[in-house]
Amino acid sequence: MKTLRFDDPLLMPKTGESPEQRFARAVPLAGTPGQAYVERRGVPVDVAEAAGLMFDSDFGGRPAVVFVMRDREGSLASLHGRYLNTIRGQNKMLTIGPGGGAASVRGGWQAEPLILVEGLFDALSLATCGWASVATVGRWAPWLPEVSAGRVAWLAFDAGRPGETEVMRYTQRLHKSCVHRLPPPARCKDWNTALVKRGPDAVANWIRDHCAVAS
After folding, report:
1. Per-residue model confidence (pLDDT) at position 198
2. Contact 125, 115 (CB under 8 A)
3. Within this chain, do residues 59 and 138 fall inside the same structural domain, yes or no?
4. pTM of the model
5. Which residue from 4, 18, 91, 93 puts its CA 20 to 30 A from 61's CA?
6. How far is 113 from 6, CA to CA, in rounded Å?
7. Contact (Cβ atoms closer than 8 angstroms) between residue 180 and residue 110
8. Are 111 and 25 in contact, with CB atoms under 8 Å apart?
9. Left, alpha or beta for 153 (phi > 0: left; psi -120 to 50: alpha)?
10. Half-sphere exposure (CA, 13 Å, Cβ side) for 169?
11. What is the H or E stretch that residue 79 is in?
12. Quick one: pLDDT at residue 155?
């Protein structure tokens, strides 16, 4: 099975700061450009801050909202940043650190049901709708098979071919789990699109109805 590989730097490019050092420079979202960014994407600032999102005005040279990706014990594994603005040719995100973590929101993998999503804003969108999830951010957390063993695992990756490829990959890797597909609502490429287009109540009901069918 082919595994995606990312060349995430261990340290912040140019400054050489560790993920811990860089995260220590972040500030709460409220009153920053980060607040306007998350609200524009349909996520209330209190939901984002409760999930651990912070603002960094100079994350590798550009302002970004940042989030800690943690290992099973809750220790920092990587620091993930989503840039507020991009121009052609620029990356939308930057992740630094050794890896092996995931972004857990509203209890993450410890909550029921266990829902895996792709991106940070997928997880924040589900949180806005009252649901817990784990965002992989396209990375592999080697402890996921163990914490999902014997449980139902909902693979809520993006719609389309890349999302279905992730579903196949995780179905093989989570072989000790009862795996189900949880797609975004029709004509929505991901959960943040669904939140903005459909609203939190409709998305919450969509998730509840799909989980009820397989329960």
Report:
1. 97
2. no
3. no
4. 0.94
5. 4
6. 29
7. no
8. no
9. beta
10. 20
11. strand 76-83
12. 98
